[in-house]
Write a structure and sequence with these properties.
The protein has 178 residues and is an alpha/beta fold. It is built from four helices and twelve strands. It has one domain: Hexapeptide repeat proteins (UDP N-Acetylglucosamine Acyltransferase, domain 1, 3 Solenoid). The chain is globular. It starts with a helix and ends in an 8-residue tail after the last strand.
Length: 178
C-alpha cells in the first residue's frame, strides 16, 4: 500500500462520515470532523494498517493499543477494511477479518472469533469475510469463518455463525416481558 492509497482510503471515510451526517466538505469542515472520535479511531487503524503493510511492527501495535485505550475500538492492523467505512460509535467495536467497501458498524458490534485452529476462508483462520455495503447493528456478532453477502443487514443483537446471502436481513430472536 502506498501513502496515496492510505490517504485515499481515509479520505473516503471522511466523505462517508460527512455524507451520512449531511455535512458539506470544505477544508475547514474536513479538519473539524477529523476530531470526531470515530474518525480518529479509523485514522489510527488506517495508519497502523499502512505501516504494518510496509513492514513495521511496533508502531502499528502502539496505534492498535491506543485505539483500545482511547476509544474502546479493537481493530488490529491485520484486519482489512474497504473504502468508505462508517463507524458512528467507537465503544466496543471489535473487527477481525475482512470488510468490504461502504460497511457500517454500530456500537459494540463484534466481527471475528478465530481461534487459530479453524477453517480459513481467506480472512485468516476462523475469521469472517463481510461483503460491500453491509450494515452491522449495535451489539451484533459475526463469529467464525462465515461469509456475509453484500448489501446485507445484520440487525441489533443478532448472533451470526452461518453464511448470509447477498441482500439478506438477519435479526435477533429475543423474548420480551410486558
Amino acid at each position: 500500500m502506498t501513502f496515496k492509497e492510505f490517504w485515499d482510503l481515509f479520505s473516503s471515510d471522511i466523505e462517508r462520515f460527512a455524507e451520512h451526517n449531511g455535512l458539506g466538505l470544505s477544508r475547514v469542515k474536513r479538519l473539524s470532523i477529523f476530531f470526531m472520535p470515530s474518525l480518529q479511531a479509523i485514522f489510527a487503524y488506517r495508519l497502523g494498517r499502512y505501516l504494518y503493510l510496509r513492514g513495521w511492527r511496533l508502531v502499528p501495535r502502539i496505534l492498535f493499543t491506543w485505539n483500545i485505550m482511547l476509544w474502546s475500538t479493537d481493530i488490529p492492523p491485520t484486519t482489512r477494511i474497504g473504502r468508505s467505512f462508517y463507524m458512528p460509535h467507537t465503544v466496543g467495536i471489535t473487527i477481525f477479518g475482512i470488510l468490504g467497501d461502504r460497511c457500517t458498524c454500530y456500537a459494540q458490534a463484534a466481527i471475528g472469533g478465530g481461534s487459530g485452529n479453524e477453517i480459513d476462508i481467506g480472512a485468516g483462520p476462523g475469521l469472517p469475510i463481510v461483503g460491500d455495503g453491509v450494515l452491522v447493528g449495535a451489539r451484533s456478532m459475526i463469529v467464525g469463518p462465515v461469509r456475509i453477502g453484500s448489501g446485507s443487514l445484520i440487525g441489533a443483537n443478532a448472533f451470526v455463525t452461518f453464511d448470509v446471502a447477498e441482500n439478506s436481513t438477519v435479526v435477533s430472536q429475543t423474548a420480551s416481558v410486558l
